[in-house]
Design brief:
mainly alpha; 2 domains; flat
Length: 192
């Protein structure tokens, strides 16, 4: 069967269709924060394997915030409760998990509350951490700074190589724009 490029929905067609049977289109099953909390905790504690997996993840270093977000988002997407209940439920689940982890002999120092690198959330970021963050979050600025650093290193190297050469004898102009490597060669090489 040949490919038909026109065999697809018209843009906006989904907005004119009747609502689906997805849980998101139905009212939530639970509208009360207390009821949502106790139902969630009961579901976790009733399943021995789920509860032991939860404790294992906490002991392995998975932060409580991430676990709580996964639990609340999963329940929200299944239509158990609304997004506002999910947002209010997250800190309550974090506190409950902290208490349960402590009760099950997980060291307090081993329990990660939020998704922060150790000793980095207190203003102690090193320059290497900032560079790694910039490389991931703002690659254009990272590339620009890498290029500027390379030009500066090359200029410093050339100054060291030239040693006692005076400013008049230097060919490289003092412009802020980076030059190619060939433009930086001294004119004295032309006579060779």
């Amino acid at each position: 069967m040949p490919f038909d490029p026109f065999d697809r929905p018209v843009p906006g067609e989904s907005l004119t269709q009747p609502m689906q049977d997805d849980a998101i289109y139905k009212p939530p099953q639970v509208n009360n924060l207390d009821e949502a909390f106790f139902n969630t905790v009961e579901t976790i504690e009733d399943s021995e394997s789920l509860f032991s997996d939860l404790l294992g993840m906490i002991d392995a270093g998975v932060d409580l915030e991430s676990i709580a977000n996964v639990v609340t988002f999963g329940s929200f997407s299944k239509g158990v409760y609304s997004p506002d209940i999910a947002m209010q439920l997250t800190p309550l689940l974090m506190i409950w998990m902290y208490v349960k982890a402590h009760e099950n002999n997980i060291e307090i120092d081993d329990i990660n509350i939020m998704n922060f690198p150790k000793n980095k959330s207190k203003g102690n970021m090193s320059s290497d951490d900032i560079v790694a963050l910039m490389k991931r979050k703002n690659p254009e600025k990272f590339k620009k700074q890498q290029k500027e650093a390379a030009v500066t290193e090359l200029d410093d190297f050339l100054k060291q190589v030239q040693g006692g050469v005076s400013q008049e004898e230097q060919v490289a102009p003092s412009s802020s724009e980076p030059m190619s490597f060939m433009e930086m060669q001294p004119n004295s090489l032309e006579n060779v």
